[in-house]
Design a protein that fits this description.
four-stranded mixed sheet; 160 residues; alpha+beta; binds FE2/S2 (inorganic) cluster; 8 helices
Length: 160
């Protein structure tokens, strides 16, 4: 089953309802509910926000404000795994462009994009604060320091 179909089923099979049910009528739980839905689906489907609005009795406009204000939330589908490639100066001179090329070629996506199976989302960052480890690639918060282009494919193949 394609990931997009799984997401569609998940949003209609009650998981969101279960999350919301725990906080029904409690507007103060808005961020918690959004975090749980984000964690479950890796993004906030529009239908889910409508249910949250109804059940927590919070205006949809307020929910959208919160969802766009915090970087932790995404209003567009995101992959199950987040990849960040550091393109800061220290990483750049140590070969970060080749790392990024390898990721792009392997996944067929560019920074800011998510693959069609909703498996990976790719971003670039300017510095991760660990320049001595450069070039650095991060997958789901796991740091891969001194990354070699030849290893990129093997690293990404570890993720389901
Ligand atoms: S430039 Fe990449 S971690 Fe600082």
């Amino acid at each position: 089953m394609k990931e997009r179909e799984k997401v569609a089923r998940a949003t209609s099979n009650g998981k969101i309802d279960q999350i919301i049910e725990k906080h029904r009528g409690d507007a103060s739980a808005l961020i918690q509910v959004l975090l749980e839905i984000q964690s479950e689906h890796h993004w906030l489907p529009k239908e889910a926000l409508g249910k949250v609005s109804d059940e927590l009795e919070v205006p949809l406009s307020q929910i959208q404000h919160v969802a766009t204000f915090y970087k932790a939330f995404s209003l567009v589908p995101r992959g199950r795994h987040e990849i960040q490639v550091c393109m800061g100066t220290a990483c750049h001179i140590r070969g970060a462009p080749r790392i990024l090329d390898m990721v792009e070629n392997f996944l067929g996506i560019h920074p800011g994009e998510t693959d069609l199976d909703l498996k990976f989302s790719l971003e670039t960052v300017n510095c991760l604060g660990c320049c001595a480890m450069g070039p650095v690639m991060v997958v789901d918060r796991k740091y891969h320091g001194k990354a070699a282009p030849a290893n990129v494919e093997n690293i990404l193949k570890r993720y389901d």
